[in-house]
Amino acid sequence: MLSSDYVQTVFQEKLIQKIMIEVRESISAQVTQKTYAEFHEKNNGEYLSEYINDAGNIEANAISKTFSLLSHGVLIIFATVALASYHLLFLPVILVLAMLMMLLPNKLGQPMAQATRNLSEGNAELSNHLTNYLNGFDVFFNFRRLAIYRQLVKKTSQHYASTKIAYTKTNARVTNTIGGLSIFCQIMVDIVTSVLAIMGLIPLGAISSTGNIAANVFNSLSSFSNEFVQIKATRPLFDKIKPQFSGKAVEEQVSAPIFRTMLEIKNLNYTVGNKVIFHQLNLKINKGGKYALVGKSGVGKSTLLKILSGQITNYSGQILIDGIDLHQFSQDQLVSLLQYVDQNVYLFNDTVANNISLWDQTLLDDNLKVALEKAEVDFTDTSKQMIAENGQNLSGGQKQRLALARFFYQPKLIALIDEGLSALDTQTATKIDEVLLNDKKLTLIEVNHHLSPEMIPKYDDVISLDQA
Ligand SMILES: Nc1ncnc2c1ncn2[C@@H]1O[C@H](COP(=O)(O)OP(=O)(O)OP(=O)(O)O)[C@@H](O)[C@H]1O
Ligand SMILES: [Mg+2]
């Protein structure tokens, strides 16, 4: 008996976890369908909450409860058959009362779904705030503001508590209503039993056993009904994580670009809120040209590179690659041509090799070696070496070199490098710059805050956004 319980429990858990993998796959599908701008409408804490809290709620309330629902359904059928064996009149009575109990979930489903939606938002907010404060832990530590950290976490915890209490209240109201109705139904069956016994249609001695069986039926029905409400209430969570296919995939697209002559920016306008970043900007970038992009902080250098690399799309004017509008290319096509190296380097808590090749299954050791050499990565003995979360075990300049190694591992025709060398000493920066500048095939746009007079002649042009 014990071993069969063990087998059933393990089998059930395996099935649940199989479904949960699919649930999280669905969240990933939804996340990866988003555009760059859509993804950044939410914070990471909210995504984390979908993977952990919403998925956890689905596991506890939709999937696990489906198993209980099934077993209660079977119990109801057997108990009803047993009751009907005493007298067939029990059948219609139970049927009517059961229908009454099953009508209830429809009424209670709405407030439970709303409570689930609110709880999901509460979870997202909690996760969001905690991620925010934890990511900034070093700041609290260094400014000796650890008490503030505790206060902030307590405040967000208190706020979450009220959401959870509201959810539990709705949940308890639902359970009570169903429980109350179940008692009413049992009394009705008891009345029917007594009438049948008085009329001599069932033996008096059967009253206690029919009472027990009826209690079984309505207890199971009560659980069934409750589980039904809980399962239905998870609907908003399924709606939230369901991938929404946009029409973009079927848009007509031109064939992958082959960069032949020129990248042209024509009458580019871009505004964020009320702030005009670009007004009628015109630029021509020749194939193989080497350009330094300069301008004061906040002028729009990174924004321009993000527009060219397809991360920002809501600009007006035209970006043309050999005369073809950038909007015509898919992000995949665009990235096959150019690579943006972000000013803010993100490194994964994984090996050097995975950080550079980005989990390339056909990792080519030679490519990796060349990439590490070109990016002057001389501080790791082995590509299997682990990098700490966001590269905390590395210096700023070391992180930049690993980001550049990512580019060198899979070089593209156009490199958009956003202050990739700003944290490096002049000697190392010059060495890497020379690799980039001497590559005849490469078209380079490099944001450079510290352009020395001797470096200027090495570029074909210095583009300043200050006057633009
Ligand atoms: N995601 C964003 N949402 C709203 N405004 C933004 C966003 N990113 C940048 N900005 C604004 O756009 C302007 C240009 O920013 P950008 O990052 O392009 O400047 P930058 O020239 O690269 O500056 P820096 O030299 O400091 O890196 C800034 O005023 C900034 O406040
Ligand atoms: Mg910038």
UniProtKB/TrEMBL annotation:
Subcellular location(s) of the protein: Cell membrane
Membrane topology term: Multi-pass membrane protein
Sequence ranges assigned to domain ABC transmembrane type-1 in this UniProt record: 1-233
Keywords from the named record: ATP-binding, Membrane, Nucleotide-binding, Transmembrane, Transmembrane helix
SUPFAM superfamilies per record: ABC transporter transmembrane region, P-loop containing nucleoside triphosphate hydrolases
Gene3D superfamilies in UniProt: ABC transporter type 1, transmembrane domain, P-loop containing nucleotide triphosphate hydrolases
Transmembrane segments: 74-104, 178-202
Major localisation: membrane
Domain called ABC transporter: residue spans: 263-468
GO cellular component annotations of the record: plasma membrane
GO molecular-function term, one example from the UniProt record: ATP hydrolysis activity
Keyword Calcium among record annotations: no
Pfam families noted in UniProt: ABC_membrane, ABC_tran
Protein name: Multidrug ABC superfamily ATP binding cassette transporter, ATPase and permease protein
Originating organism: Lapidilactobacillus concavus DSM 17758
Source species taxonomy: Bacteria, Bacillati, Bacillota, Bacilli, Lactobacillales
